[in-house]
Amino acid sequence: MTDKITNEAIPADTKNTTSGEVEKDNTNATPDKPDFAQRLSKIILILAALYFLWYVIGDRLTPISDQGRVRAFVIPIVPQVSGQISKIYIGGDKRVNEGDILFEIDGRDYRLKVEDAEAKLEMAGQDVGASTAAVAAAKARLDKSEADLVTKEMNASRIFAMEKEGIISGSDADRTRGVITQAELEIITAQAAYDEAQQKLGKSGQGNPKIQSALVELSKAKLDLERTKVRAPSDGVISYAKVNVGYYAAKGQQIMTFISTQYVWVEAAFKENSLGNLKKDDRVDIILDSAPGEVFPGSVISIGFGVSFDKSKPGSLPTPEKPKGWMKDPQRFTVILKFDNYDHKKLLREGGQADVIAYTGSHFIFNTLGKLWVWINTYLSYVF
Question: How far apart are CA 110 and CA 113, in angstroms?
């Protein structure tokens, strides 16, 4: 009843006006605006589709590897002679140049060996000198015997001539023939003595075996003395040295670890299905964790043709690998890369991590996207 009275109390014009305003307000309150969530979802789906397309195609045209390592030649420093370390010139994590002395082994014993070898060489020279004198004496006896034979033959010729003329008897001539025979036997004896002396002497001068043996022993002693100073094989870094003066360094025992900086490269593990277009001399960009914000250009040296996967022993049955998830893990192969220059050697550390992208051809769009990826990841390396 109250509602009826109220409606009757409201004028007709007023009621129509109010109703129209309400309808107008309702129309303005529900405008046809696009849904922000739907628009955002569409953008995300489009970006995801574009990323998937870039991932599938770009993985063949511009393959990427985040499993790269900086590599260099690692050489164990081992002494070639044994002894106590008397001096250490270079400690761990220090740069060295080729020929720099790293440490020194006590060389007193080796200096004594050099002196002993020098004495033996002197004795060999004296022995050879004595043998040379014996040869000379034997040769002199041989020459004398030959000269005596010549003289006796000349005298004998006159005696034999007088024998023919009957001036002397045949017995005197026979005694002369005996003298000549005796002289010939003396020559044979002297020749044998001379040959024996030469055989004992051997080669003369530096070619004599005794001299040669003494020289070899002296050279070895001097070489061992030189080896007491252990030197850097090339330019590089001593990365590990945990020894001190007084430590006994055995021959062949590793004392330090040397990393060469003469040649540095990158070993990157690329997925097997990314190698289809990759080839030798393709250009690459390398990002090092040790050098955030910098890009190192390079090229492909070689592509690996095999990996080790069979862990079974000879004669045993193979053990199939068990899957680790619902998706198959991609097999990776090692690709060797080189730097175009060595201006940043101080940042190239053995085992340092690297991200790599390779450009397999003149693919403008994907190469540009690859450069963008490089630029982004270069600065992200400041964070991780």
Answer: 5
